[in-house]
Amino acid sequence: MSALPYFRRLYAHDVWANREVLKALRASASPPPNALRWMGHILAAERLWFERIHGQFQMLPVWPESGLEQCEALASEMAKRWTEYLAALTEAGLDVTFSYKNSSGATWTSRVDDVLLHVAMHAMYHRGQIAADMRNAGCAPASTDFILAVRQGVLE
């Protein structure tokens, strides 16, 4: 069975979950600063890995100082980029390896499928931190569970 449809669903979930978190941050009277910092990091990391896969120069720091508007703009941009990339990706493209330099300057080689899974899991991890931070601040966090997206018909 092809892995590509699963990656497409995983990234459809990522797009939806990022939007849900951003809606919850916007709805809170005063979003916790760390929640915005983690959201900026999620989106900057998504862009960083997209750029690495494409052999492009890293445009953003890994931990940018982002406000809500910047996060919303970057979330929209990355949703479009990842959706288009995954729509054009072939099954053979999942096995492609590419080299890049990490934030410390070390050179690494990774497979596309490993990076795709890493990016999605990384975002899920930090969205959990955002939810905890929002609860601790008395704000209502977004519900971003994968199965919730399935139940709501967000994923095909």
Describe it.
The structure is a single chain. Strands 1-2 form a two-stranded antiparallel ribbon. The longest helix is centred in the C-terminal third of the chain and has 25 residues. Helix 1 runs antiparallel to helix 3, helix 1 runs parallel beside helix 4 and helix 2 packs parallel to helix 3. Strand 1 and strand 2 form a beta hairpin. 62% of the residues lie in helices and 6% in strands. The chain is mainly alpha-helical. The protein has one domain: Up-down Bundle (Four Helix Bundle (Hemerythrin (Met), subunit A)). The chain is globular, with a radius of gyration of 16 Å. The chain has 5 helices and 2 strands.
CATH homologous superfamily grouping: dinb family like domain
Number of helices: 5
CATH fold name, please?
Answer: Four Helix Bundle (Hemerythrin (Met), subunit A)
Which quaternary structure do these chains form? single chain
- How widely separated are the two ends? 17 Å
CATH secondary-structure class: Mainly Alpha
Question: For the report, how would you describe the main beta sheet?
Answer: 2 strands, antiparallel
Mean pLDDT, nearest integer?
95
Number of domains: 1
Task: Provide the succession of SSEs.
Answer: HHHEEHH
CATH architecture: Up-down Bundle
Task: Give the percentage of residues in beta strands.
Answer: 5-15%
- Strand order across the biggest sheet? 1-2
